[in-house]
Amino acid sequence: MRLAATLLSFVLVIGASSEVLAVERTRLTIYTSLEPEQHAPFKQAIEAAVPEVEVSWVWQQTGVLTDRILAERDHIQADMVLGLAATSLIAFEKLGLLLPYEPVGADQLRRPLRDPTAPYTWTGMDAYLGVICLNSDLAHRDHVLTPTRWQHLLRPEWKGRLVLPSPVMTGTGYLLIANWIQNMGEDAAWAFMDALDQNVVAYLPTGSGPCEEVAKGRHLAGLSYDMRAALLKEGGAPIQILVPADGVGWELEAFAINAGSPHAELAKKVADWAASRAANELYAQTFAIVAHPEVSKPPSTYPPHIEARMAKNDLSWMAENRTRVLAEWTRRYGAKAQAN
Questions:
Q1: With 322 labelled, which of 20, 92, 106, 251 sits at a CA distance of 20 to 30 A?
Q2: Which numeric CATH code is attached to 27-126+251-290?
Q3: What is the CATH number of domain 128-250+303-336?
Q4: Rounded CA Rg of the chain
Q5: Which pLDDT tens digit goes with each residue over 214-267?
Q6: What pLDDT does residue 305 have?
Q7: How sure is the predictor about 284, in pLDDT bands with cuts at 50, 70 and 90?
Q8: Which segment of 12-26, 32-46, 116-130, 310-324 scores lowest on mean pLDDT?
Q9: Per DSSP, what are the bridge partners of residue 337?
């Protein structure tokens, strides 16, 4: 009986100690637009690197999350943002919503993926580019000419056969239209989008959705982002990944600490991890272009020399004009936008 009592006491002490350790972990709320399948591995990696932290994700698509943070600007309900468009973070920076902090090791990252203005508030993780996903089987069956420039998508044979991501909901959708406006000129770009809309079936609520729909044979072609297309093709999807010769739009995923975070010191530790080589190796599992210059492992299906076709892009312009551009887009084409 004495041995049993001793063992019971030992178990109770261990259990109590475990509860204390659990209480000592601080829940860090992180707003994110990372793809849902990335949440578990990112949470595991962050909690291994910063054991004092328990990650609690709040996920929404880029456009929705950006609008949420702007609506919460007086009392943001999160400690930090990780995996959101850099253009959104630039807008938050201008409003004073981000805590000035340059993570340890940020000076080792590619300069285009680092905050260029003082005070330093955000750091890039990876870059993603707009591409065309074409269903090879359908194109061959219907003798459709392969588009090599954006204007080719205006041909009559594309009517009712295109799906695009909504720029209101997704960062991919916004980078596409921002590219056209910046590189065609505003009037020409809206004329192009008016004509393109005649061939569009729907604007989908996710950046990956158009390519996934095309991979399933539901549509002839869709606009999506580079690595989602490459990974679908690597998995056996019957798609071609087309990079228009007249240049593709691009955007960065980035992270930052919210100015009002009650756990700013812990958030800084997570930011230090997010700027590390180990974190970049995790980003490289789903993105070809990452912030660390020595980390990259795109699949064999990734379009070669795609970086040479990255169009002129002013991220500050994208941030400053987002509200105006999206309001005009919604007025013109919002009737075809699908909700989540």
A1: 106
A2: 3.40.190.10
A3: 3.40.190.10
A4: 22
A5: 999 999 999 999 999 999 999 999 999 999 999 999 999 999 999 999 999 999
A6: 86
A7: very high
A8: 12-26
A9: 203
Q: Could you identify the residue written with the tokens 């291994």?
A: 48
Give me the residue spans of the domains in the chain: 27-126+251-290, 128-250+303-336
Q: Regarding beta strands 80-85 and 250-257, do their DSSP bridges make them parallel or antiparallel, or are they unpaired?
A: antiparallel
Which 8-state DSSP code applies to residue 165? E
Q: Report phi then psi at 276, rounded to 5.
A: -80, 165
Alpha helices in 198-249 (DSSP H): 209-215, 226-234
Query: Could you give the CA distance from residue 105 to residue 275 in angstroms, rounded to a whole number?
Result: 6
Q: How far is the C-alpha of 308 from the C-alpha of 285, rounded, in Å?
A: 22
Confidence of residue 159 (pLDDT cuts 50, 70, 90): very high
128-250+303-336 shares the fold of 27-126+251-290:
yes
Compute the distance between CA of residue 253 and CA of residue 38 in angstroms, rounded to an integer.
13
Dump pLDDT digits (tens) for 62-102: 999 999 999 999 999 999 999 999 999 999 999 999 999 99
How far the first Cα of the chain sits from its last, in Å, is: 61
Residue (of 149, 152, 164) closest to 197 by Cα position:
164
What beta strand segments (E) does the chain contain? 26-32, 53-59, 80-85, 122-135, 162-165, 200-204, 221-225, 239-242, 250-257, 289-290
Name the pTM for this structure: 0.89
